[in-house]
Amino acid sequence: MTRSRLPDEWTPHGGRAGVDFHLRSARRRYALPVAALAALGLIAACSGPPRNGGAASDAPVKLSAGTPAAAGPLDSFTWAVYAEPPTLDYIAAFDYPQNTILSNVCESLMRWTPQLTTAPGLAEKAVNPDPKTWVYDLRSGVRFHDGGEMSADDVVFSLGRQMNPDNGAAWNSEFANVETVTKTGPLQVTVKLKQPDAMFPQYMATAAGVVASRAGVEKAGKDYGTSGSLDCTGPFKLGTWTKGQSIELQRFDGYWGTRAKSAKAVFSFLTDSSARTNALLSGEADGGYLIPTESYDRLGKSGAGTLYFGEGLSTVNVNMTNMKGVLGDVRVRRALSLALDRRGFVKAGLGGAGTATSSLTTKAVWAQAPQKIRDSAFTGLPSPEQNVEAAKRLIEEAGATGKTVTMATSSIGQDVSLLATAVQDAGSRIGLKVELKTIAPNAFTSLFTDPAAREGIDMFPETYYDSITDPMDLLSNFQTGAYQNYAGYSDPAYDALTDKAKSTYDLSERMTAAVELQKKASDQLLWIPVAEWPTAVFLNKRITGAPTTISYLYYPWAADVGAAAR
Q1: Could you give the CA distance from residue 9 to residue 78 in angstroms, rounded to a whole number?
Q2: What is the Cα–Cα distance from 527 to 359, expressed in whole angstroms?
Q3: Helix (H, G, I), strand (E, B), or coil: what is residue 144?
Q4: DSSP string for 248-292
Q5: Are 258 and 558 in contact (CB under 8 A)?
Q6: What is the spatial distance between Cα 411 and Cα 166, in angstroms, rounded to a whole number?
Q7: Pairing of the two strands 264-269 and 77-81
């Protein structure tokens, strides 16, 4: 099937909410002008989340800024991933497996760095001549994997695929405020917004901003993303995809940037957590992200390699999906939160790596904000400590004693199953019956995408990771009609403040609004926050160079992996 050729200007038509979600429970800088940098909070003085502790400074694990740089090249290395991607089409890159691989093959207009800041990507410069306009000047001489040279036409086409509601793109909602994407020069693209949008330029460093070859995508047709070439610009190109087993990436020697240190990277699908751990210990796999939490201690003490922890921008939460029944009374939600043993969950469910929290956002996403605003974001939030007696009183006041709520659970990982058990235990301590409904691991993702899958379920565990270093990535989920606002929460004041925060480029003003939104969402317990969770990466003694932060979802991390010093 061949797609019709798009004009030099792409305007979104129709309009339905795209899939805007981040799963595991299953998913800013040099060339910008000084004024735009300051507006977005991307100046050098705010060079990313804190390196020493940051979001988990009281956690029993030390966060590492990175791993030692590679000492030499490699012929190949093997990486363990917990699932096989259904597709590598960039418009469907919404989950860990897809992005872990795709980030090394396809590149975006901007680039998320290992320090979780934004730098130029395929666009060497981005300017903001007026509040509703972003102009991207592209690098010259950038080659696609099939040999063609990148042009503005490819950018218009690539962003157009994200914006087309018929494609059901995972990132469609990030383009809801885009009026047009226009070719304004051979290597220049201009984005016109319906209103000012401080979030849009940040998302251009994620899979939302990927540029692929127009010719390559049209040639592949319906097979794009599942076989053949992805025809992108990254340091690796798609090699052999052995269904059910592995994906091989091959070094792209025509890459415009620094050449990858390894000639080949092989991603092995190991869905069983024990098998994944054993592969890391035996050397069958050289490394991996998303290490099973129950294996932290074993891997850390194995001597087979090093287990690192880095900034994750991830929070473990209880997502509210139904506030029309028992959970419609905020006192019941507060009671469950008070009765929850967060520290016990961190120890058992997260292998002791993490921090109990009552904050919906991590500390690190506030890194851009002035210190006074950062402090105020966490001042006055409820204590994360367990208080069963206070919780019992709330249940009695709400008349909810003996009533029943249903929580989904799954064997997808102990972070999911043990959190569900912890919530059930909390309920039993305060007179609330929490029934668990077990969802098969391969169907758990449906809770995020299919309203029918959520029928009869009042809440479920969710680990949410921010795709940008900005608290609004999470806080905008509670706006009326937002994709992850599954419970249908609606507050005109919250909506207006969200619009204000998203539309202002002034950093202090935006973050001040975000502080107020955090307090509103926390007061209503729209999700119950449980813990911050760092990124974990294991590298055996043969390799090094992979970043420790969650940047690997959008940064070409595999190009940095090479031989460890002997």
Answers
A1: 42
A2: 10
A3: coil
A4: EEEE-TT-SSSPPSBSEEEEEE--SHHHHHHHHHHTSSSEEES--
A5: no
A6: 34
A7: parallel
Q: Which residue has the tokens 């999906």?
A: 321
Residue type at 216 in one-letter notation: G
Q: Amino acid letter at 433?
A: K
Q: Contact at 8 Å (CB) between 82 and 26?
A: no
Distance CA 419, CA 84 (A): 25
DSSP string, 346-397: HHHHSTT-SEE-S-SS-SGGGTTS-HHHHHHTTTTPPP-S--HHHHHHHHHH
Q: Which residues contact 534 (CB under 8 A, 6 or more apart)?
A: 55, 56, 59, 61, 63, 309, 310, 311, 312, 314, 353, 354
Query: What pLDDT tens digit does each residue of the chain (566 aa) get?
Result: 332 333 445 544 333 223 333 333 334 222 333 334 334 433 222 333 433 333 333 446 899 999 999 999 999 999 999 989 999 999 999 889 999 999 999 999 999 999 999 999 999 999 999 999 999 999 999 999 999 999 999 999 999 999 999 999 989 989 999 999 999 999 999 999 999 999 999 999 999 999 999 999 999 999 999 988 999 999 999 999 999 999 999 999 999 999 999 999 999 999 888 999 999 999 999 999 999 999 999 999 999 999 999 999 999 999 999 999 999 999 999 999 999 999 999 999 999 999 999 999 999 999 999 999 999 999 999 999 999 999 999 999 999 999 999 999 998 888 899 999 999 999 999 999 999 999 987 788 788 878 999 999 999 999 999 999 999 999 999 999 988 999 999 999 999 999 999 999 999 999 999 999 999 999 999 999 999 999 999 999 999 999 999 999 999 999 999 999 98
Q: How far apart are CA 253 and CA 251, in angstroms?
A: 6
What is the rounded (10 degree) CA torsion for 118, 122, 124, 127? -70
Taking the C-alpha atoms of residue 207 and residue 209, their distance in angstroms, rounded to an integer, is: 5
What is the DSSP-derived secondary structure letter of residue 11? -
Helix 492-503 vs helix 507-524: angle between axes, to the nearest 10 degrees? 150
Identity of the residue numbered 67: T
3-class secondary-structure state, position 94: coil
- 533 bridge partner residues: 314
pTM for this entry: 0.87
- Helix (H) / strand (E) element for 119: namely strand 118-120
For residue 333, the number of C-alpha atoms closer than 13 Å in the C-beta half-sphere is: 27
Q: What is the rounded distance in angstroms from the CA atom of residue 380 to the CA atom of residue 508?
A: 20
End-to-end CA distance of the chain: 52
What are the tokens at 115?
């320090």
Is the Cβ–Cβ distance between 118 and 111 less than 8 Å? Answer: yes
Collapsing DSSP to helix, strand or coil, 48 comes out as: coil
What's the Cα-to-Cα distance from 340 to each of 254, 424, 433, 539, rounded to whole Å? 54, 9, 14, 34
Q: Which two tokens stand for residue 330?
A: 């905020």
* Residues written for the chain: 566
